[in-house]
Amino acid sequence: MSDTLHIEVTINGRRRGLDVAVHHTLLDVLRDDIDLTGAKECCVVGECGACTVIVDGRPMNSCLMLAVEVDGAEVMTVEGLASDGNLSRLQTAFLDHGAAQCGFCIPGQLMSAHALLEGNANPSVEEVHEALAGNLCRCAGYPQITAAVLASAPGVER
Amino acid sequence: MSAGGGIGAPAHRLGGYGRVTGHQQYVADIPMADALHAKLVTLDCAHARIISIDTSAALQVPGVRFVMTADDLPSPMPRFGPEYQDRPVLAVGETKYFGEPVAAVAAETKDAAEEAARLVKVEYEVLPAIFTLESALDASAELVQDPSIRRPGPLTGSNVLCEYHFGWGDVDASRADLVVENTYRWPMQTHFAIEPHGFIAAPDGDGIAVWSSIQHPYQLQKTLARVLEMPMSKVRVLAPDPGGAFGGKQHPKLEPLVAFMALRADRPVRLILTLEEAFQAVRRTSTAIRVRTGFKSDGTLVFQDFENDYLVGAYGDTGDRITSKASYLSAGPYRTPAVRIVARAVLSHTTPTHPYRGFGIPQVTWARECNLDAGAFALGIDRLEIRLRNLAKYGEEFIPGDTPADGDWAQTVRKAADEIQWGTPLLEGQGRGIAIGLKSGPTTGLSYATARFLADGSVLVYSGTSDMGQGARTIFAQIAAEELGVPVDRVSVVMGDTSVVPYDQQTSASRSSVLMGNAVLSACRSLQGQIRKMASRLYGVDEAAIVVDRGVVRLPDREEAIVDVLTAGLGRMGGELIGNGESRKDADPDHPLGGTALFFEFNCTACDVEVDRETGETVILRYVTVSDVGFALNPIQVTGQDEGAAVMGIGHALMEHLILDDSGRTRNLGAIDYRIPTTKDLPLDFHSYIVENADGPGPYGVKGMSEGSLLGTAPAVAAAVREATGVVIRDLPLTPERVWRAMRELGAS
């Protein structure tokens, strides 16, 4: 048996006590231990961004963080974006703009975009491109994703 | 158009909600109680003789249940493949390519499976590997495949899997004012779907259930039935929407192995590949294409003469079909009196080659369009003009005996030229390029669909197409919504279960909007026929006096909504109407490809670039892609596919290539060393346009689309780089280093 450590972590607003294997990444724990499979596994080296989640307000590659590192942290995954079954403005914009094609990268795109918009109510195209540069989309829906992020920025009139 | 979301509307993607909430389940997300985890054992070389496999240390790892080797499988080793039955379930005696599995561990946890896989001791002798066309075609080359697994014929004593001869006219007797001859190379590339392939197998009563990220579930069902010696009815393939595919998920790969493991364990077994393993599971064919193009002095084409060599992998896979179907169209959409095409698919100790968006056509387009530019430069003729001069006219039989030009192709080319402002000046250090791509759709095909009109007026459509991002589910729902007069959000489309959904041949070749689209349309028309009978009975009107069309029942004195007739007709018992549809394109045994093109995908791409003289980096300033789609069933999805293909094509043109070392191992496995486009690689100014003349064979005049927009990307970009720098590069990709070196050499000479 591998070594485990107990951590206390808030995930999508719910506080959880978890015994995690010390060598497991945050992505492993989200997907395999608590069945939050929204964050995806692809490159496992921090290049593709499919596993992006938000840890204490910052977008992180959950494949590069050990789960023990989030002890005491607040974690948000794509499953935490909608509230009470209502899509967020960002999620709705992704649907309106056809930003989700195969959809596999979309949880990561949404997390990076959400983190951007939390800190920047009115980003420029360049700022959106920079914020999403670590999220690969092989359907290459980058123009549609960018348009969706821009349209849902809090600084944009509805 | 009636209730909303019908054809031509930018309807939201069906399945979009799951995609933006994280609830969409791809294979790796499917919970499976009591499942074992599998991990592959591979060797650190391409070609090896396996001497022995010692599993004793691996079996000591807590949680390991067994290690599967060739000895645990039927003898002779079952082999399978889409065209050739040559791929073994596990390597037997030899590995033929880097990453070919020699064993697989089954364990209670992923950790245990991974640890044990590292502890499987394989004793092996590294053998020389063949991984270039030159070495494979050398007369003294070792044979990649033992003749006993080849189809009998004159080629089994060579590494040539198959050879094709196409053409018309007499090239040798043609008199040209100018002949341009060059060889153009396209490198190995990987599909890089963001979802690596995933497989789960589970015993299912007296049969088996297999989940796979596959594009062709019915082909997998057939393959498993044959390999496992089960009736097809006992093999249930479940194919959740793939997380991107691009051709790389068309055919069975590791499903037979996982199925044998599940049967042995009598438990579910799951195998989710890493991205590195996905790179090693499938790749794109690399090519060397030698082309001689003969011109009159006014730019008129006299002949085109091609020798196309496609380097395929260690097993046949679809290498033969990619080579033949793409090569057949080498001469493109141009009126050419004499054409000669000799094409070979060549085996090597490399990753097996699947189709890859464009099905080998980008490779021939790269050669043809670049050589056309070379001729235009030599003759002093404008590059747009030389294309328009030779372009086949609407209805012209530009390939003798095949489907005539099925679109106003000049309209597409002129649109691209207008939008890039062809002929306007550029700044120093900038250049402009234009290229035309042409790809044939499927040559044969068969699709069935079922539509169930439920008592509340909602609709279930059953379609065996895979929705891998192209949005098939949405457009089928739009067709049903249009025909039956229901809002699109009251239509559900059931896919991906061979025990529930009727047969569809495959999801590829941009075929689904046409072939499956027509099948869905025909299922809806069957429902309309039943509604007409219902109306006749309900209202006492002769059937012949009733027309049912696009959601409306037209009676002699009034109109009723289809849904109202349905509700009244079903009455208190409820129930439903069931409509079946079928769509087929039959084979033509006399045709060199076994069938004519169902339609053509036609695209014109133009761009302006700027090249950094210090670094060789190419920046795309403006990019225009125009596709003739016939009719856009869903304009948002069309844009997504066209622009997405263009960006993928930009990756192929500027950055993507698999690099092998001296022993045939891939040096750039994975996302760090194999770069694909990001947001930072988008053209600075990027536009896609469509031509819609409703002249395709699909519902409402649609043609297939989704591949067209990357066919001509590389030659358009290379032409612009040439104009910007003066350098001519015939080997892709146009990496900064390659462009920089070429500029240095040009400067020195």
Model description:
The complex is a heterodimer of chains A (158) and B (749). The mean pLDDT of chain A is 96. Chain A is built from five helices and five strands, in the order ββαβββαααα. Chain A starts with a strand and ends in a 6-residue tail after the last helix. Chain A folds into two domains: 4-80, Beta-grasp domain (Ubiquitin-like (UB roll)), CATH 3.10.20.30; 89-152, [2Fe-2S]-binding domain (DNA polymerase, domain 1, Orthogonal Bundle). In chain A, a hairpin with a 2-residue loop joins β3 and β4 (58-61). A five-stranded mixed β-sheet of chain A has the order 2-1-5-3-4, with helices on both faces. Chain A is an alpha+beta fold and 158 residues long. In chain A, 31% of the residues lie in helices and 17% in strands. The model of chain B has no long low-confidence stretch (mean pLDDT 97). A seven-stranded mixed β-sheet of chain B has the order 3-7-1-14-11-12-13, with helices on both faces. In chain B, strands 9-17-16-15-10 form a five-stranded mixed β-sheet. With 749 residues, chain B is α+β, with helices and mostly antiparallel strands. The radius of gyration of chain B is 27 Å and the shape is globular. Helix content of chain B is 27%, strand content 25%. Chain B folds into three domains: 16-24 and 445-585, Aldehyde Oxidoreductase, domain 4, CATH 3.30.365.10; 32-127 and 197-272, Aldehyde oxidase/xanthine dehydrogenase, a/b hammerhead (Aldehyde Oxidoreductase, domain 3); 357-441 and 597-748, Aldehyde Oxidoreductase, domain 4 (2-Layer Sandwich), CATH 3.30.365.10. In chain B, α9 (361-379) packs parallel to α17 (713-725), α13 crosses α14 and α15 (635-654) crosses α17. In chain B, β27, α15 and β28 (685-691) form a beta-alpha-beta unit. At the A-B interface, α2, α3, α4 and α5 of A face α1 and α15 of B.
